Amino acid sequence: MKKTLFERGSAGHIRIHVLPTTRFKTFAVSLYAGIPLNEDTVTATALTPFVLRRGTASYPETIQFREQLEHLYGAGFGFDVYKRGNYQIVQFRMDTINDDFVSSNESLLHKTFSFLGEVVTKPVTENGAFREAYVASERETVRKKLESIINDKIRYAAERCMEEMFRNDPYRLHPLGERKELDGITPQSLYDAYQQWLQHASLDLYVVGDTTLSEVQQLVEQHFTLNRASSPQYVPAVSRLTDREVRTVEEVLDVNQGKLNLGLRIPVTYGDDAYASALLYNGILGSYPHSKLFMNVREKESLAYYAASRFDGHKGIVSIQSGIEIANYSKALDIIKAQLASLREGQISELEMSQTKAMIRNSLLEMQDSAFDMVAYDFNRVLSGRERPAEELLQQVAAVTPENVVEVANQVQLDTIYFLTGKKEV
Amino acid sequence: MEVITHERLKETVYLETMDNGLQVYVLPKPGFKKTYATFSTKFGSIDNHFQVAGEEETTVPDGIAHFLEHKMFEEPEGDIFATFASQGASANAFTSFDQTVYLFSATDNILKNLETLIDFVQHPYFTDQNVEKEKGIIGQEIGMYQDNPDWRVYFGIIEAMYAVHPVHIDIAGTVESIGTITKETLYTCYNAFYHPSNMLLFVVGGVDPEEVFSLVRSNQMKKEYKPQGEIKRIFTAEPAEVHEKRKEIKLPVSLPKCLFGFKETKIGLSGEALLRQDLTTKLALDLLLGTSTKLYQKLYDMDLISDGFGHEYNSNPNYAFSAIGGDTRDPDQLLEVVTEAANEMMASGFQADDFERARKKKIGGFLRMLNSPENIAHEFTRYRFRGGDLFKVLQMYESLTLEEVNTRLREHFNWEQLAVSLVVSP
User: Fold this and answer.
1) What percent of chain A has pLDDT over 70?
2) Is the residue at A234 inside a domain?
C-alpha cells in the first residue's frame, strides 16, 4: 500500500500539514483551532466563527464577503464547532477549484489563503470591537441553533444521554455553548475573548491539493499575521471508570417513537495500544449491518429500524442509539444488554471477527479518496500525540484476537440509560 | 464498448449495453483506492400504476418500491449484508420518487463484490414470513419520519400541490398501505421493473472498464431474460392548479417551519430540454434567494430566516416544483417580503454581473461534486433515467443566457401556482 504522507512545517506558531497530490479537482484547506472545553469560554468561542463569517476588513459587508467566494468559483467555505476529547474545536474549511479546470488569471490557492487569513485574523471592527449588528444577529443565530436541537429527536436523545452521563464533567457542555450565557456577551467582550483565543488556541492548518509545503508556508506567513508566543500541544483525555451504579433517565416529550440510548465508559482511547481492539469491539457490537445490535434488535425481533453503536476514541465512550415502539422498552433494553453480555462472555464468531476486520479495513482505505477524510484522520495524531499512520492501524486491526476483544468488553461499563418517551395516556 | 471523453473535465466514461438491455457505465478514477457501484432500477414511489406490454394493467399498494428494496437484501442463505461484510464492502440502498438504487463501496475484491451486487438484485426471495417480519421494521421507519419536522414540512408542500399524482405519497407508504403488501404483489413489481432493460449499472473508481464489462457480460449470459416490452406508467391527469394553498401540520418545534414553492406548469419535458429548464430554474432561484443576495441579507437582518434557509427545484418529466424556506418566526411576513422582492426582480430582471457570478458559483459547485464518486454515480444515473447527460452540465451552464434566466423567473414565479406548507407547535 502506497503511503500517504503529510509534509510538516510551521509558520508563526501555526502547525502546517500539506499533502501534495493531483488526484482532486480542488484545494482542500482546513484550519483547526482548539481550546480546552470550559464553562467560562465555551459560549464566546462558539459564537466567534459566526461573527467572523459576517465580514472582514476588506469585505466588511456580508454580501461583499459572500460575493468574493462566488468570484472564487463558488469556493466552499464553512466552519464547524465540535468537541474532541476535552477540547472545543473550531474548524474552518475551504474547498477551492484547482485553476486547471477553469479560466482564471490568478492562483485560486493564493486567493483562498488571502481570504481565509483575513476571515480569521482581520475581522471588520468598529471602536476596537466587533461590529455590534453582527454580534447581535449571530447571537440569535446561535440561540436558534441551540433551541432547534429538540426538533431532531434522534440527535436530541443522543446529546441528552451524553449530557446526563457527563453531568459532573465539562464534557456535558454543548459545543455551541449555553443559551443563558449568550445575552451577557457584548461586542467588546467577544472581541477580547477572540483575541485570547487566537493567542492561545492550538492551531493546525492542513492543505491537500496540487501544492507544496514551501508554497503553503509562504502563504501562511503572508496572510496569517498573528503574534503568538507558542504553539500549544493537545493533552489527550484519560478515560476513567467509576464505581457508581447505572443511572436511568426518562424524559417525556410529544413523540410517536421512543428513543432508547445507552452511554457506556470504555477506558481505551486513541493513544492506547488497545485502540484497535476497541474498534473491533464497537464494530462487532453495533457499527455495521452485520453487527449484533442490528442483527438482534432489528432483524431477529423487528423492534427497530435503527439500532447502532458508536465509539468515541478521544473521550473513551461507547454510545448506543435505537428508535423503538414505546411499549417495547424493556424488551429492547434486555436484548441490548444481552448483546453487551455476549461480548463479555466471548460469544464472538470467527465470521464476526473477519467481517468486522474487513469493514474497518475498507473504511480506512476508502478514507484516502477524500481530502477532508484524510485530514480528519491525520488530526487524530495531533489530538492524541500518537503517530499511527493508517497502514499501521490496518496491521494492528488485522492482529486483534477474540481474546483481545473480550478483554476490552470486560472493561466497558454501562453508565447511563436514557429513554425519550411519549406522553402517557391519562 | 463506447468511449466518451470529456477533456475539460479530465474524465472518460465507458459504456456497453448488454444483449438483455442492461446499460453498464464505467468511469475509471486513476489513483483512487475505492470503487463505488450502483445498480439502479427506474422504479420509485410514483410507479404504483402500470402496464407491461402484453400484460394486465396493475395498481400496487403505496410504499411498495421501498418495501421491495428492503426485501431484496434477504436471500435463502441469510442477509446479503453479511456476504458484503465478508468481502470488505459496505452496502446500502435507497428509494426515491422515481428510482431504487442498490450500492456498495469497497477497496478490495471489487469484481467479487460487483457480482454479489448484480446477483442479489437479480434474485428475489420473498416468503409470507419474511414479508410479515419486515412490516414491523418499516413501521418503525415510518414512525421515525413522522416525528421528523423537516421531513413533514417537505412532504407537506408536495401534498399541498398535488392532488392526484403519486409524488404526494410518502415514499415508505403508510402503516396501513404496507399492511396490504404480500409476496405476490412484490413479485409483480419485481417482474415488471427489475428487467435488465429497465436498469443501469454504474461503476466508478480504480477499475479497468474491460474487466467490468467482461464480468457483467458472462454473468448476464448465465441468466435467462425474455425480452420485455415497454412499461407504460399510468398517471391519472393531475390538475394544473395546486391542491391546497396552505397546509399546516402540528408538531413540537422550536420555531415554525415554513416551505413555499410553485407547482410547475411547464411539464412534459425530457432529455436536454428538461435539463436546461432544471438548470435555469435553479440559477434563477439562486440569483433571487442565494446567500449572497440582497434579499437573503434583508431577511436575515429582519430575523425572518436563519442558516437553514434554502431553496430547491425538483424536476421530472411529469411533475416539477420548487421548495423555498426554513425556520422562521413569522411565515406570513417572510412570504410577504419574498413576494415583494420577487415581483420587483421580475420587473427589472437580474443584473448581468450578478448572473455571471452566480454562473461561476454553479460551475465551481459542479466541479467540486466530481471529486465524489458517490455523487457522480447518483447524479449520472438520475440524469440518465430522465433522458439527460450529467457531463453536459458544464457546457449547458456556459451556454445559458441572462434573458433565459429572466424569462424562467417570470414563468416559474406564477403566484397562482403558489403553495405553502407549515409545521407549527401544537
Assistant:
1) 98
2) no
Residues A256 and A217 in one domain: no
Q: Please judge whether A324 and B107 are an interchain contact, meaning their C-beta atoms are less than 8 angstroms apart.
A: no
* Any domain includes A257: yes
Residues A350 and A404 in one domain: yes
Is residue A320 classed as helix, strand or coil in its secondary structure?
strand
- Distance of residue B393 Cα from the nearest chain A Cα, in angstroms: 14
| Alpha carbon distance B186, A119 (integer Å) | 56
From chain A, the residues in CB contact with B135 under 8 A are 302
Tell me whether residue B69 is one of the annotated catalytic residues: yes
- pLDDT tens digits, A396-424: 999 999 999 999 999 999 999 999 999 76
B7, B56, B69, B374: which is the annotated catalytic residue?
Answer: B69
Closest in B34, B358, B368 to A366, CB measured: B34
* Whether the Cβ atoms of residue B102 and residue B121 lie closer than 8 Å to each other: yes
For the segment B39-95, what is each residue's pLDDT rounded down to a tens digit? Answer: 999 999 999 999 999 999 999 999 999 999 999 999 998 889 999 999 999 999 999
What's B2-233's CATH class?
A: alpha beta
B4 has which bridge partners? B13
What is the SS3 assignment for B86? helix
CA distance B98 to B198: 12
Binding-face residues of A in 16-35 toward B, CB within 8 A: 23-26
Cβ–Cβ gap A290/B31 under 8 Å? no
Domain with CATH 3.30.830.10 in chain B: 2-233, 246-424
Report the residue of chain A nearest B308, measured CA to CA. Answer: A145
Is 0.80 topped by the overall pTM? yes
> Which one of B32, B33, B74, B131 would you mutate to disrupt binding with A, by most A Cβ within 10 Å of its Cβ?
B33
Domain B246-424 architecture: 2-Layer Sandwich (3.30)
Q: Is the pLDDT of residue A1 over 50?
A: no
> Is-contact A60 A198, C-beta < 8 A?
no
Q: How far apart are CA A17 and CA A9, in angstroms?
A: 7
Q: Give me the residues of chain B with pLDDT under 50, please.
A: none
CATH number for A96: 3.30.830.10
pLDDT of amino acid B215: 98
Give the structural domain span for A136.
Answer: 7-223
Query: In the block, which residue shows the cell 477580547?
Result: A192
- CB distance A359 to A372 below 8 Å: no
Q: For residue B83, give the chain A residue with the closest CA.
A: A355
Give the residue with greater pLDDT, B302 vs A1. B302
Answer whether residue A2 shows pLDDT above 60: no
Q: Is A210 on the interface with B (CB under 8 A)?
A: no
